[in-house]
Iron ABC transporter
Amino acid sequence: MLKRTEFAGGGGQVHGDRSAYARATIGLLAVLLVATMLFSLTAGASDASAWAVVKQWLSSSASLEGALSQRDRIIVLEIRLPRIILAVLIGSALAISGAVLQGLFRNPLADPGLVGVSAGASLGAVGTIVLGGTVLAPVAAIFGIYTLPIVAFLGSLISTFLLHGIATRRGQTSVATMLLAGIALGALSAALTGALIYMADDQQLRDLTFWQLGSLAGATWTKIAASGPIIALALATAPFLARGLNGLALGEASANHLGIPVQRLKNVAIVTVAAAVGASVAVSGGIGFVGIVVPHLLRLLIGPDHRYLLPASALLGSILLLLADAVSRTIVAPAELPIGIVTAAVGAPFFLWILLRRRGILDL
């Protein structure tokens, strides 16, 4: 489906069948992801060797016990490896969320960070950090380490449903309304977040300031255990949306004629995006532009078919976030630059390029 129609936010251009090219691209991205993960094991202030790690994993020989010193073993296995896994999960989640939102709204400008979804998740996360020991203490007692991602998920879920309800009328989504509503929801969430930050103590304030810039510095196996299952469930659900999103690109009426349950598709897509974004924001803070850069690049390369676009987005999102994390760890070593600054520095110019390339899309 949609093998020859180029998705262009409501318009269409005819291109050749890119299925074989898309499959080859996905295979190449999988190889690049493995290589990038190995590179990330080495990148950093310490000179711990990724090859030594691989040899130690692959060999049961006692003679290789000295391949890594105790210090390097802690750096690689307790600091870098959780960080790499978290970067893969979050990069995949943000990229797939962007692709699903763009398919749902039928516009390549949709992005969790730009339309207020991430802001809603941030509000839930900040509320949990500040109020977790008081107002939300009963909730924290019930859900334990899952409290933060669950509340962030609820915040992003509410934002996404509000955005969809405001921007869609009679089955048609207004691009201008979507962006303006996203700005309004983001501003409201930012105001409430600011009020919570005002209530925070000094230690919470320091943590929140760094967290809001986006960072993987606090990656631990506990955080992976808290957010990983939610993100993994969202990633596992996303491929089942591919056929419906392909049909939805033709319009809701056409999708209904094709037998696609449009309303159920919307509900599942919104919950999937909210879960992925909420759990990601809860552990990493604000990391922007991954959701708009990755799907847009891949749509230019392999076409709009979501059967290939979604898995390719997951792979490329992971690769880009791993590279951004490597830059953040090395560019000002031994200090660390928040990863949100790196992604914004790359993503903001790219977003401006999209606007210039699609000049007139925001004309009211």
Observations:
- The chain has 15 helices and four strands.
- The two ends are 32 Å apart (CA to CA).
